[in-house]
Amino acid sequence: MHNNNPFLVVLFVAASFYRGSDAAASFCVGDLTRQPTPSGYPCKNPENVTVDDFVFTEFVKRVNTSNANKASIVRANSTTFPALNGLTVGLVRTVMEPNGGVVSLHTHPFSPEMVYVVEGTITSGFITDLDSNTVYIKKLHQGEVFVIPQGLLHFQVNSGAQKSVHLAFFGTADPSAQFLPPALFGNDFPSLLMEKTTGISQAEVKTLKALLGGTG
Question: Is 123 exposed, middle or buried (CB count within 10 Å of its CB: 0-12, 13-18, 19+)?
Fold first, then answer.
């Protein structure tokens, strides 16, 4: 006699998947002593893996915001946190000082971003990739969440009177990031070509290059 209990059917299917899976493939702590491949770092020998490999302690260290952006960005990715190697999760914590704290315009080509405000108040926004180039900007308070679609230019600034802290969650351990100001003016892209391709005068281009360490 057939048993049509749906709960038992679910258990059977789940057990089949479990039996067919390779438990050793459930994680791959990256071996940072070896060269990475396009799919990530080679796996650390399982015999050398310890519980400490799965603990990230960089967020408890002292914050340093003594820079031009008045911000501290600490990334938990496959390089800084090898347990994330090959997994579909990544995390960044950003601390910004009031009166000037900023994460300048940038993009993550490999993942959307979900911003969670831990402390203070920030303003975040992104520019659509449609013909309208619509800008969506929102002032966010403690406990609020903002989602930024994959690959779009976006930013965060501290818009309050106190230090702000926010977490950014990603759907990959290596979302990559390209920051617009240094990408445009922090290199040796010839100023004449920059003028022709952006409409910004050579004089202005050279001024911005001087600020951001570019040449040409």
Answer: middle
